[in-house]
């Protein structure tokens, strides 16, 4: 796989997410945890010199759970 960033959705289990992350040795990841019903968003990103995370991934609009059952997940990076 050559992708620098993978955006994932409908991630219910942190255990299974970590198994996928651990199975990809060149990647690190972040799984959100605030979704209604536990179907969260996640990112997997390369952990080499190709990509620099400027801040840890974070969720926005978390107080709008009626309008947004999954809060948007933001990753800020530099190539």
Give the helix level as a range of percent. 10-25%
**Count the helices. How many?**
1
Number of strands: 7
Give a quick account of the main beta sheet: strands, pairing sense, barrel closure.
3 strands, antiparallel
Strand content: 25-35%
Radius of gyration: 13 Å
Mind explaining what this structure looks like?
- The protein has a three-stranded antiparallel sheet, covered by helices on one side. It has a two-stranded antiparallel sheet with strand order 4-7.
- 11% of the residues lie in helices and 34% in strands.
- The two termini are 18 Å apart.
- It has one helix and seven strands, in the order E-H-E-E-E-E-E-E.
- The protein is mainly β.
- The longest helix has 9 residues, at 14-22.
Structure characteristics:
flat; two-stranded antiparallel sheet; 79 residues; mainly beta
Q: Layout of helices and strands, plus pairs?
A:
Blueprint: E1 5-11, H1 14-22, E2 27-31, E3 40-46, E4 52-53, E5 58-59, E6 73-74, E7 77-78
Antiparallel strand pairs: 1-3, 2-3, 4-7, 5-6
In short:
With 79 residues, the chain is mainly beta. It has 1 helix and 7 strands.
């Amino acid at each position: 796989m050559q992708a620098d960033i993978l955006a994932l959705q409908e991630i219910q289990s942190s255990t299974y997410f970590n198994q996928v992350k651990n199975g990809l040795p060149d990647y690190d990841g972040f799984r959100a945890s605030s979704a209604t019903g536990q179907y969260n968003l996640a990112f997997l990103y390369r952990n080499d010199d190709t990509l620099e995370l400027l801040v840890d991934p974070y969720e926005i609009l978390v107080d709008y759970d009626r309008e947004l059952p999954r809060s948007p997940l933001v990753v800020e990076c530099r190539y």
